Citrate synthase (Candidatus Thiodictyon syntrophicum), 433 residues
Amino acid sequence: MSTLCSDQAILTLGGNEYKFPIVEGSEAERGIDISDLRAKTGHITLDKGYGNTGSCESAITYIDGEKGILRYRGIPIEQFAMGPTFTDVAWLLINGRLPTTAEYDEFSADLTRYANLDESMRHQFEGFPRVAPPMAILSAMINALSCFHPELHELEDESQFRHAAARLISKIRTIAAYAFRHSRGLPNIYPDPALRYVPNFMHMMFSQPYKQYICPQLVRDALNLILILHADHEQNCSTSTVRMVGSSGANLFASCAAGVCALWGPLHGGANVEVLTMLEQIHQGNITPEEYVKQAKSKDSKVRLMGFGHRVYKNFDPRAKMLGAIAEKLLPQLSAGDPLLEIARRLEEIALSDPYFIERQLYPNVDFYSGILLRAIGIPTNMFTVIFAIGRLPGWIAHWWEQNQTQANRIARPRQIYVGETHRDFVLRDNRR
Ligand code: SDX
């Protein structure tokens, strides 16, 4: 909970003074509580894109965009390079602390137990065209999961919630892998209960009925860290969507399915695909890095330097730094000198010394290097954002639950400033000119 500050915000409107309380969070962030602004003043605020508006109080993730700080439940993400698994971090985000060994083992056992899909659900993949976007399938099938678990629509207690969370976190891998296999006309590979979270996913993605794919430790560690670095990011577009949908009382599956749709957008989670498209365009010689940056700066072009810029970070995105370092280390071992990494480095070098980007505080974000890394691991481009969704799911679940546990949870319903036609009457068609 935030604390009430001794000072207040004073708004002068039409010769009247209105006072509003100021609240302060645990990291000294301050917010003006305008919950009764309209009742007091008859005015609402207008903040397009919510760049200045806090929608809730949350204890899950802390970002300081100016200092490039990102912490999950107080732990700086840089410390996750020390080897926790994605399962550890998923449990941390959802439960507020790191799991004991017994809790970790129980959660891992649940993730193994719940990996399979109901056979009639497995057949539903055949109804999609081969070219169906995997994010469309992912959102549809996460929603479809709720049809097979009606007992998890109303989560009465923490234990039921934990089982629903484990089911979702486990099955999203299976859904993602089956979507990929279907797009290639390959038979589904069932999860292997002997494998842990990441190796089991890669097994379902790349094994053949006659030959099991063994996930190299290098790939396992890289994908584990990629998922961790994507696991949560406070009130980003997709997480806010999950909270918005969940605020209506919609169940966990429906809320997360909505999060998948929001993440799909090229300005959000879809940017990692756009980054690779941009790098490949440059690599194929259609355009030089210098020319691309020039286009990205031009008001006349819709081109943006994908993977650059962020609503919150006005400094380096710490995740981009970590992914860049992993790429530097891994790529020479995974895919001999990927030329796209060189192009990425060149773009970064140009942009970081260009006044256009400096003045607008545009730095590489999480998507700038993730695509190159995922490609080196062998993940196909159209699955990049799906990997982002697998990583972000524990964050969505944690926020959905945090909101549901807040007694003051009200349905989210922003206001607007109407700018349309003023009053006019209906005219019968024969009388219209
Ligand atoms: C993610 O919110 C999150 O936390 C998101 C995320 C998460 O973990 O959930 O971090 C994941 O979505 C990362 C962002 C991935 N998207 C991209 O990389 C797409 C490229 N970046 C942008 O489109 C943009 O920077 C956004 C969408 C990320 C942020 O947009 P904002 O905050 O609305 O900024 P803006 O559009 O108002 O831009 C401000 C100025 C504009 O120029 P002016 O009108 O002031 O002259 O900066 C320019 C923009 O044109 N600008 C860019 C640019 N990003 C902003 N110009 C060129 N290239 C870019 N990438």
About this structure: The mean pLDDT is 94. The CA atoms of residues 86 and 224 lie 6 Å apart. The pocket of s-citryldethia Coenzyme A is lined by residues 49, 233, 236-237, 267-269, 271, 296, 304-312, 360, 362, 365-367 (CB under 6 Å).
